[in-house]
Amino acid sequence: MAPSSSKADKKGAADAAAWMFNVVTSVGIIIVNKALMATYGFSYATTLTGMHFATTTLMTGVLRWLGYIQSSHLPFPELLKFVLFANFSIVGMNVSLMWNSVGFYQIAKLTMIPVSCLLEVLFDKIRYSRDTKLSIGVVLLGVGVCTITDVSVNTKGFIAAFIAVWSTSLQQYYVHYLQRKYSLNSFNLLGHTAPAQAATLLVLGPFLDYWLTNKRIDTYDYSAVSVMFIVISCTIAVGTNLSQFICIGRFTAVTFQVLGHMKTILVLIMGFFFFGKDGLNLHVVLGMIIAVVGMIWYGNASSKPGGKERRSLSLPTSRPQKQSNLSESDEHDGKV
Description:
Layout: H1 2-39, H2 45-66, H3 76-99, H4 102-110, H5 112-123, E1 126-128, H6 130-147, H7 155-181, H8 186-213, H9 224-250, H10 253-275, H11 282-303, E2 308-310
Transmembrane segments: 12-32, 44-67, 79-97, 134-151, 157-175, 187-208, 220-239, 251-274, 280-301
Organism: Salix purpurea
Domain Sugar phosphate transporter: 24-298
């Protein structure tokens, strides 16, 4: 019993550390980017994302040179599909935010959880218990109460949101899928995907940003402070990209989405703390409480036997697994 308990404790501690790493870097990059864009007028979000992946590419290159990343294989068609999903996700989110009201944009983001559930049911044969489904509904309700204000819909905004939701859900599902199928750890997968995303976003980003903002990046008035914020943003983004792959590899896309709304709550709380209590009212506080209760319920419900389990283990791996980094998260059907 003792070895099994010790192993479970170690896995729990590693899961918590991975999640905290993602929360800290994600919230940090939101705050830095908000200052960079709102205070210093650097509104080139797509190009900035390309810079993030270029920095991540540099990091994976250094680690490979130092011997911390082993050589691995990812077929080009798989890489191409991943990059298409990921880049459509980034562009779709930016366009959706521009063309939709904030309320409808938030509703669209919330639909990623049901879409991710559908992908797991269809492709991974996952079965959810009644309590797990209800807990997801409570999370969606709580976050919706917190964030949804005005809701107006238009045709082009709906199309942009539809593309953003499905491409993001597919990209996150694909992270987990590729790690399992090709026995890739998070560093290996980033080493394959980051260069391709950096190249495409740095080439297309300036044109997309000009289309979205009517501002050219080559005319931006750089200052020492704005460059410092860009460097900080790129540095934090390395951790954000890595932690996303680690978390989805250890959990699943659905769990990543559910727990991801904790970051929404934290950003709201930090906004109230740093920028005053103008937005702090009863329905926002109530929404936060509902969302947190739902997350706790989801964690409890999905970890119980039958809470969330795979009906069949049919996904083959393309070759024997060399690394043990991810094996602990694939050992049982009821992984959350």
